[in-house]
Description:
7 strands; 1 helix; PH-domain like; four-stranded antiparallel β-sheet; mainly beta; single chain; 107 residues
Amino acid sequence: MSTRSKKGLFGRKTEVVHTAVLVTPTYLIWAAAKDNETPGVLSARLRDVQVQDYEKSELYRLVPDSGLNITGLFTNATTPASSFIGLGQELAAQKFRTILKQAVANA
């Protein structure tokens, strides 16, 4: 679950995004949805994507958050795309970062 404070017309609003991720030896599969919305599901072969810590991206200075940018060719896509997987600072989230980066490196 990723929680972000978002500035709206009437002040700050908390936005919660529920995310589930599955990493296999060859695929990354992830689903994300805001409260009361249908989840969107994406997948990609690990060999077709790059993983970057969002905190190291140019966008981080404009929109601070924590997570991973996934960039590359997603399943059934004809052009490269990018997606964000929000992660907290918890130990499990940091372990996931390490596991996914290693899986992509080994693909």
